[in-house]
Amino acid sequence: MPKSNTQYVCQSCGHVSAKWAGRCGGCGEWNTYVEELRPSAKVASLPSGLANAAVPRRIPDIPSQLETRVATGFPECDRVLGGGVVPGSLVLVGGDPGIGKSTLLLQLSHTMAGRGHTVLYVSGEESANQLKLRAERIEATNENLLVLAETDLDVTVRAVEQVRPGFLVIDSIQTMYRSGLTSAPGSVAQVRECTSLLLRVAKQFNIATFIVGHVTKDGSLAGPRLLEHMVDAVLYFEGERHQAFRVLRAVKNRFGSTNELAIFEMKNEGLQEVVNPSEMFLSERALQSPGSAVVAALEGSRPLLLEVQALVASSSFGTPRRMSTGADHNRVSLVMAVLEKRLGLQLQSSDAYVNVAGGMRVDEPAIDLGVALAVASSFRDRPLAAGDVYIGEVGLTGEVRSVSRLEQRIREAEKLGFARCLVPTHSLGGWKYNGRIEVKGVASIQEALQLAL
């Protein structure tokens, strides 16, 4: 009987077994055995183009070269990637089902093909005919865009060796498999081995590679955590299913910032970039309405003006409800506790709901002041001053703490026609803003409330 090319390795202690077992014979842990290719099988199963051994070199002998980037044709995507696609990079794109991952990558493939690059789009979830229907709908039919409907990664790599594309898309990594492993596609062993091979292909052939990854019920990427460590960049495509806006956010990037985001609008003809997101998020704002405040958040290098809405209503139960959408629930609870303690607002008998309008999710503490004033405005049923923007972090003693990149936030508010900005006094120092908008420093939440109401 021929010897198997696979073995089972415990992920806790590294114990190797010839067959799977529920309990590790080395450390005693349960369900830790994962199927892997034997070291000799890995070398034998590599395609011929990847079998050449690398030669160690002294670091001074390695020639220096500038980091070249290729524009995708989508300035928003270029910003998230750090200025463009780096040849030889491996990028993982994750998101909920139906959010638009395949549509985004198909549009990127079309624009890259239109710039003279050969693009190979490998679809493991759709047939070539299904992919053609989507391509015709979004008008992504460039002749430099090649399509391969295949799930065997070894066959895919041989096609890559023949075509030598400049841009490769794998949709998705959970559908790919290597014939040397007996486990099903999408398993830990298959995902790890397939990603490892794609990494070698991308680096050796200098091909910019995008792979689509599924997400679990809690929103994290499916498969082993090692998957995120192996790739050069991890992008999350986010958005609400009932809204047309989508956000592409970088959570890991070896070639740029991890704080950038891109905003798209989903239409029948595909995804379209949103040039002025602040204006879009404030387009449906109701003026002179209690519980509405405008804040200036910063996502990477881009300032965004967002509307924070709060609703405070009497509770008929012993324990009032606290709900937040788009804002950190813990920080909202902290801000409400400060309002009760420092301003004497009797919120303990009221339900409170806080929402960042437009479906955006904001985690930075610079929106604390806007959240506090929106809650106070709804509690007192009095609208905040028209034309105000609120910037600042709220401390536990009621002080308004400084934030970063204050001038960028103020310029964004001035560009959209706002009249006044309430900002932390410590952020101003001796600095004075020269512009049409009035900048007013506040040291405490009490002072901000007096000016706003």
Walk me through this protein's architecture.
This protein is an alpha/beta fold. It has three domains: 6-40; 69-275, 3-Layer(aba) Sandwich (Rossmann fold); 280-452, Ribosomal Protein S5, domain 2 (2-Layer Sandwich). Helix content is 28%, strand content 25%. It contains 13 helices and 21 strands. It has helices at 39-45, 75-81, 101-114, 128-137, 153-163, 188-205, 226-230, 277-281, 329-343, 368-380, 406-415, 425-428, 445-452; strands at 6-10, 16-17, 33-37, 90-95, 119-123, 145-149, 167-171, 208-213, 233-238, 245-253, 261-267, 270-273, 292-299, 302-314, 322-325, 350-356, 388-390, 393-394, 400-401, 420-424, 438-442. The protein has a nine-stranded mixed beta sheet, sandwiched between helices. The chain has a four-stranded mixed beta sheet with strand order 13-14-16-15. It is globular, with a radius of gyration of 26 Å. The termini are far apart. Residues 41-45 have low confidence and may be disordered.
Keywords:
28% helix; alpha/beta; Ribosomal Protein S5, domain 2; 453 residues; 3 domains; 13 helices; four-stranded mixed beta sheet; 25% strand; nine-stranded mixed beta sheet; Rossmann fold
Task: Describe what is shown at a glance.
This protein is α/β, with parallel strands linked by helices and 453 residues long. It has 13 helices and 21 strands.
